[in-house]
Design brief:
With 669 residues, this protein is α+β, with helices and mostly antiparallel strands. It has 5 domains: 1-36; 43-176; 191-324; 335-483, Immunoglobulin-like, CATH 2.60.40; 490-633, Immunoglobulin-like. A 9-stranded antiparallel sheet has the order 4-3-2-1-6-7-8-9-5. Strand 29 (496-504) and strand 30 form a beta hairpin. Helix 13 packs across helix 14. The longest helix is centred in the N-terminal third of the chain and has 37 residues, at 2-38.
Length: 669
């Protein structure tokens, strides 16, 4: 019995679902039919190609679609506002009536089209779609509700539609007109031409997005300056349009325009002509805006004349485009492509910096000094210093352009007969089928004897002449020690500083001395009894000594008696002795000693150190080491405590092995 009931229920469910499915499909079809019946226009509104609006007074406005863009073609040719046109097209595509009735039924009620304002319509709207023209008449408002009457394109029905149709179709000319004068976006622009009465300038972009001058010279252009200028041109907008009947090209200055600007894009070209200024006085706008001058203007292939406010900065760039859009950099190269650079200066041996191409130091550099009659001398170079120099050379920019074709007399005047500096870059991006053959790029820097605070630069090819800041001469000295590797020592992880002694050479007394007797001891435990200031200073000094790095080198040779400074020889004031323990393969430690000689503090952040190690060097210590040493060497009168010098015969701790002034306690008899 139960199984029979179950079968019956299943059957009833199947019947019910089938009925619902059939009803839903019919309901959807009826709904679509109802919506289609309410739509005023059919599929023809989906592909509108042109729109024409005729007002009751006879004025005509026409829009046409060109490619993907809409254009005003009447009363004049001008780009249309895409948002405004989209509003009109969408209104027509989705226009629905509240109700409609047949024109044939009007006679039965004694009415005519005149009763609905359709004999002389307020607006006549026609659009072209698929090669056919569809004309609709928009009549009067209804007496009740915010609606109006519309006569269908076939003239057989009158639709009552929302008044939004008239608001969209009846947009004023100013709303339908596009604001921009140029329509070529910056990413599409392939060429920029600027022509004045005296000069024509043409710039072109290549496939790598670099800009270059084609006329009046062949030179690099500034990518950022060119694109900023194009964006500024695209931001220009017409202010007022002159009636064709009252336009006088002679009066507006457009018969012989003062400025002609052309943007070329993909298969299109737009040219703006600027004539006379509307007002001779340029007044800066309020609220800190940019001053602008209003000019008469027109598009080259269009008849309409309009006025356009042009910002003063843009005017200045266009009028001096040959210089304003020029690449200000003296050289054009990428630092990563440099394999070597050679520096020469009058009276100094040639100096070369070479990139090491093989092994684990592929990113490293070396200094090569060539002296006549001697074999080349090589030393490791500091990669950061060399790369910083390359960045400064790459960024070297003009203060002003002097000449594109300097004469021999010009070169002599600006000091190029004997350049103060010549820098030759070897690049791996030269010619050849793969573009990898080496090429050379030579920069010369001259100084005029008449101008002490200026320098001049030129590349050997092309020979453009620039005035530059003289800082590059100090940033590129022909001194090998300037480029030498600053990192003098970096102890491995297992190495240990086992002894440290700081001695005052004038008083011949130790200021600090400590030698480990227990191999397991650490500086943290040893310094536990020191004052906080001394503990921090000694810990900082040890960290600097583990990774010993010169701030800069001041001399090529080390003299154990004194340090050579700009103010003359300065005697060494302190000696810093280190006892180093290096891990060995058998678990034992190998010990070595290292000695630094130190001057007094020579300035706010200058203290010199010298050592016979590392081939003999004299250098400025880092600020961190200077601060640590100052704490250990400076003793205030009212602080004789932990900062006092340690007596030579102090029995509490043995002296460091390498410090001769810090001797052990005297032996008992």
């Amino acid at each position: 019995m139960r199984s029979k009931v179950t079968v019956v229920l299943i059957f009833l469910n199947v019947v019910l679902f089938y009925y619902i499915f059939q009803y839903e499909e019919k309901w959807k079809a009826d709904l679509l039919t109802m919506e289609a019946r309410k739509r005023v226009y059919g599929p023809e509104a989906a592909a509108i190609e042109s729109l024409t609006r005729t007002s009751r007074d006879g004025s005509i406005l026409k829009l046409e679609k060109r490619g993907e863009s809409w254009w005003l073609t009447q009363p004049y040719d001008w780009p249309a506002n895409p948002n405004a046109v989209a509003r009109v097209v969408n209104e027509l595509q989705f226009l629905e009536h509240e109700t409609s009735f047949a024109v044939a039924d009007l006679a039965k009620s004694g009415q005519t089209l005149a009763d609905y304002g359709l004999d002389h319509p307020a607006l006549t709207l026609s659009f072209n779609s698929g090669g056919k023209n569809y004309v609709s008449l928009i009549g009067d408002d209804t007496k009740i509700g915010n609606r109006l009457y519309l006569l269908s394109p076939d003239g057989t029905r009158i639709h009552v539609v929302s008044r939004s149709l008239a608001e969209s179709v009846g947009l004023p000319l100013e709303a339908l007109r596009g604001e921009s004068i140029f329509t070529v976006p910056v990413f599409e622009v392939r060429s920029l031409n600027v022509q004045t009465a005296a000069l024509k300038v043409r710039l072109r972009r290549d496939a790598t997005t670099h800009w270059a001058f084609e006329t009046p010279i062949l030179a690099r252009a500034s990518k950022s300056a060119v694109e900023v200028t194009i964006n500024a041109l695209n931001a220009l907008s017409a202010k007022n349009f002159l009636a064709p009947a009252t336009t006088d090209l002679e009066k507006t200055g457009l018969n012989s325009p003062a400025l002609r600007v052309t943007l070329e894009g993909n298969a299109r070209r737009e040219t703006l002509l600027l004539g006379n200024a509307v007002s001779a006085v340029t007044t800066p706008p309020a609220n800190g805006g940019i001053a602008a001058t209003e000019y008469y203007a027109k598009i080259d292939d269009k008849a309409v004349v309009f006025t356009v406010p042009v910002p003063q900065p843009l005017l200045e760039v266009l009028r001096s485009a040959q210089e304003a859009l020029r690449d200000p950099h003296v050289l054009d190269f990428e630092p990563r492509t440099v394999t070597a650079l050679t520096l020469t200066a009058p009276g100094r041996p040639e100096l070369t910096l070479q990139r090491l191409e093989a092994g684990p130091d592929a990113a490293a550099w070396q200094v090569v000094v060539r002296v006549n009659g001697q074999a080349p001398q090589t030393k490791p170079a500091d990669t950061e210093v060399v790369e910083e120099l390359l960045k400064k050379i790459q960024a070297l920019s003009r203060v002003t352009f002097l000449s594109d074709a300097p004469s021999a007399k010009d070169l002599e005047i600006y000091g190029f007969n004997q350049p103060e500096r010549e820098i030759t870059l070897s690049l791996n991006t030269g010619g050849g089928p793969r573009g990898t053959e080496a090429s050379l790029l030579t920069l010369q820097i001259g100084i005029s004897p008449d101008k002490k605070n200026a320098a001049y630069a030129r590349a050997v090819n092309p020979p453009y002449l620039y005035q530059i800041l003289p800082d590059i001469l100090d940033q590129a000295p022909v001194v090998a020690r300037y480029y030498r590797q600053r990192l003098l020592r970096e102890l491995p992880e297992g190495a240990k500083i086992q002894g440290l002694a700081l001695t005052d050479l004038v008083a011949n007394t130790p200021l600090y001395a400590k030698q480990f007797t227990d191999p397991a001891a650490t500086w943290e435990t040893v310094l536990a009894g020191e004052s906080e200031a001394r503990r921090k200073a000694i810990a900082g000094l040890i960290a600097q000594l583990r990774v010993l790095k010169a701030k800069t080198f001041t001399a090529d040779t080390f003299n154990p008696d004194h340090a050579d400074t700009a103010q003359g020889p300065r005697p060494w004031r302190y000696r810093l002795d280190l006892n180093l323990g290096m891990p060995a393969g058998n678990g034992a430690a190998q010990t070595s000693t290292s000695t630094l000689f130190l001057t007094e503090r020579l300035g706010g952040n200058t203290l010199l150190a010298g050592t016979a190690d590392f081939g003999g060097v004299v250098f400025e210590v880092s600020q961190e080491m200077l601060d640590a040493l100052f704490t250990l060497t400076y003793r205030e009168k009212n602080d004789p405590g932990p900062s006092a010098a340690v007596p030579a015969d102090a029995p509490s701790e043995p002296a460091a092995t390498p410090a001769p002034a810090a001797t052990a306690p005297p032996a008992k008899p």
